[in-house]
Amino acid sequence: MLITNNKTDKCQAPTIIMNNTELEIVRSQKHLGVVLSDDLKWSKHVDHIQSKANKTIGMLKAASHNMPRQCLEKAYTTVIRPTVEYASPLWDGLSVQDTDRLESIQYHAGRVITGAMKYTPKTNVNAELQLDSLATRRKASSLQIMHRMVNDNVPEHLQTLKPRLRREVHSTGTRNTTNKTLDQPKVRLQCAQNSFIPRTVSLWNRLPPSLQNTESLASFKSQYKKQYLIVPNKFHQKVRSSGTKSLNIKHARLRMNWCGLNSTLSKIGITDSKNCDTCHKSETTSHYLLHCTKYHHMRQTLLNEINTIKPSLKVNTELLLHGSVDLDLPSNYRLMNAVQQYIHETGRFQYRSNPTNT
């Protein structure tokens, strides 16, 4: 493989012979699990990641009917996502198209886990699963390595790559300079700008001084996570996994605000109107759960059950979708099961064929 920006040089590549065998010139080569290309772009590596991840997601989908949601989440975070993120600080300088292709992997896995309908917004699926975007996680991984480099916590062969501090290069400081602000390398080519050092130095210099000056890597990870990443709430994860498979999926769709109600179906051309067929008001999640007159008797049963759980509970859409931190876990399970029983008894989401579920 010949790496050069000059297309003429690629056509005039020298012949290399080893052991009387002429070496073939290739456009890409897989090395230690990463596909390197002669144009220093990462589209072929993303092709490799996408192909590998999609096969695993396919197996996950085939098993999803018999696996509880918590197991599906664990399979994604421990098997699929590590494959997608392998060596990501090296190749994170991606084009918009390649970034979107990677995000689609998490989106498809998220739909398998939650049972989300087709066209559900990615942000809604990530919020339901309490997941950061893959791009956000790659940024965090790059900054962790830069923290190690700044604090001389990398192998000796990487020390030569360590960026210089800005105060060591410029005698006059700027308003935004701190003790650990790094000098931004000056590079001309886009592929160089997207490489690890220039890209991550820029990210590092935008961190607050309190993070830059954190010497312990564990402390840096902890503080960065609190400030920039989603911290999954295990309590909510357990609550959202309760109930039978089919009812849990319908409940999750209501939480993601993309379900079989007319307010959603009208957006994707399944129905002409967003209004409730009975009340002639917008059939939103709140309307379905709390106000639709068609389901008055089922709703009264639901409210009576909630009253036996805790009489002082204020019943609103938030409570019916997410549970309450004021209740213990068994009480939240009872609450979720009561809501799912209401969903079942209304029969609102009983379809012979659901074109939005493919």
Give an overview in words:
A hairpin with a 2-residue loop joins strand 3 and strand 4 (34-37). This protein is mostly helical. It is built from 20 helices and four strands. Strands 1-2 form a two-stranded antiparallel ribbon. It folds into three domains: 7-114, no CATH class; 138-228, no CATH class; 234-357, no CATH class. It is elongated, with a radius of gyration of 26 Å.
Query: How would a textbook summarize the main sheet?
Result: 2 strands, antiparallel
What percent of the residues sit in helical stretches (DSSP H or I)? 40-55%
**Number of beta-strand segments:** 4
Which strands sit side by side, in order, in the main sheet? 1-2
Number of domains: 3
Count helical runs: 20
Residues in β-strands, percent: under 5%
